[in-house]
Amino acid sequence: MTWLRALAAGGLSVLFPGAGHALIRDWLRAFVFAGLYLSAVAIFLPPAEQVTAAESITEMGETVAEGTDSIGQFALMFVALFAAIDATFRALGFPPEGPDATDGPTCPECGKELDEDLEFCHWCTTRLEPAEDDDQEEPVSTRPD
């Protein structure tokens, strides 16, 4: 299931950088990659008036292709490819997080941080057993001697 999620995250990031990170709930990276991509679109693609002046979708595509230089195409593809690779590796759990990476409890199945209010892992949906309190004292049995 993890590899399927990783493929979906990578594929979404190819279509629109940041979408794959949103799928795996890595919100900061989703906004950063979406912002980078939209900034590159605004900088390198021809103005919207020039594109919308075309009479058909084919002419719009030709206008965009002719109006974008090779550096602009490289920048757009680099952001999309880097976002796809990053989302895929993050969905697979790379870099592996050590035991000191989280402050709270972690899932015994996937190792990601848990929400203490839930009875299941919201990452991999593993059902969790309720934690036993160590503060409770065991009842003392009295045996006659």
Automatic annotation (TrEMBL):
Domain DUF7575, by residue range, is 103-129
Q: Which InterPro entries match?
A: DUF7575
What is the protein name for this chain? Answer: DUF7575 domain-containing protein
- Origin organism of this chain? Natronobacterium texcoconense
